[in-house]
Amino acid sequence: MTVVHQRPPALATAVLTAGVVVVGAQAFVLAPLLPDIAAGLAASTAEAGRALSAYGAGIVASALLLGRRLDAIPRRTVLLAGMGALTVAAAGSAVASHWALLALAQLAGGIGVGVVLPATYALAAELAPPGAGARATGRVLTGWSIALVAGVPLATVLGDAIGWRAAFGALAALCVTQIALYVLLPATPAVGPTRGALGAALRAPGVAALLTGVLAYMAAFYGVFAFVGVEVRAVHGGGATMAGLVALAYGIGFGIAAGVDRFLDRLGTARLVAPALALLAAVYLALAATIGALALFLGIAVIWGLVNHVGLTLLLSRLAAIAPGLRGAVLALNTAATYGGAAVAGTLAGLMYERAGFGWLAVTAAALLALAVPVTASRKPHSSTAALDQRDQIPGPR
Known about the structure:
Elements lengths: L9 H19 L1 H11 L4 H22 L8 H21 L3 H29 L5 H30 L1 H19 L14 H7 L3 H30 L3 H17 L4 H7 L5 H18 L3 H29 L4 H30 L1 H19 L6 H10 L6
C-alpha cells in the first residue's frame, strides 16, 4: 500500500514553530539578564547561572523518565502538558526571591521542555513529505531564530526599563497563549510502544554517534552563550540591551540559514554532519579572537547562528529519520543529550569564565566539537541508514 504524504498544514507548522519560539525565549532569556538577576537576588553571577544548570537537569530527567512514553501518547496531549509546566516555571521565576528558588522554577520549566521539544520535532517529521526531512525540521527550528531576534531583545529592553522580573512575567503570558494554540493541532494517535523504547532507540544504527555530536554541540553552545553577553558588557560597557545585540546577531544568522535547508536534503544529510561540526569549531575560535572588536564580533555571531542552524538541522533530521516507530524516544534521547550538555556547561562554564576568561571558554568549545568530528564522520552505513540517505535525496510521495 502506498502512503501519500501531504505537506504539513500551514496552521500546524505555524503552531509548532510558535511553540519553539516560547521554548527558545525561556532558554535564552536568562543569559543576557544574568548580571541583573544576580544583583536583584544578591547572588554572584555563577550562582545565578546555576539556574541554567537546573533548567538543563530538569530537561534531562524529564526526557529520560518520560521519553519512553512519548510514542504511546498523542503528540498534542504531550505538548499541552509540557507547556503547562513551562507556564508555572516562568511565573515562578518572576517572583523568585533567592537564586535557589529561581533554580527550582527553572527545574520545573526543564521538565516541561523535556517533552515539548521531542514531541514538536517528532510531529514535524511525521508531517513532512518524503525527501524533505531537513527542510521540515529547519522550518520548525526557525522558532529559535524568532525567539532570539524578537523575544530575547524585547526581554532585555524590558529588563533595562522595568526589571528582569517583568521579562519572566511576559514569558508566562506567552506560555498561556501557546497552550491555546496547541489546542488547534490535530489529535494524532499514538504511534509506538512504551516498554524498552529508550533502549531500542539507543541501539538503532547511528543513534549513539549522532547523540555524541549533539552532546558536544550543545555543551559548546550553552557554555559560550551563557557568558557571551556578560563578556560583551564587561568589555564594551552598556546594559542588558548591549548583551541583547549578540543574541540578535546570532538569531539573524540562524534565520538566514533556513534558506539552505532544502539543499541539505539534496546533498544527503549523513555526509554533512561532521564537516558542519568542524566548521563550527572554527567559528568558536573566531569568537575568541574577535571579542575586543565589537562590529567584527557581531559579524562572527551572525556566522555562528548560520552554522549552528545547519548543524542542528542535520543532527535532528538524521535522528528523526533513523527509526520512525521510535521517533519520539530517539528525539527524547536527543533532548537529554542536548540539555545534558547544557547542564554540564552551566556548571563548569561559569567556573572557567571566572578563572580563565571568555577566550579560553570559546577555545574549549572548539575543542569539544573537534573531538566529536571523527565520531560523527560518515562511514560505510548500515543498510537501513543507506536506504534512508537514498530516500532523503528522492523528493515526492512513495
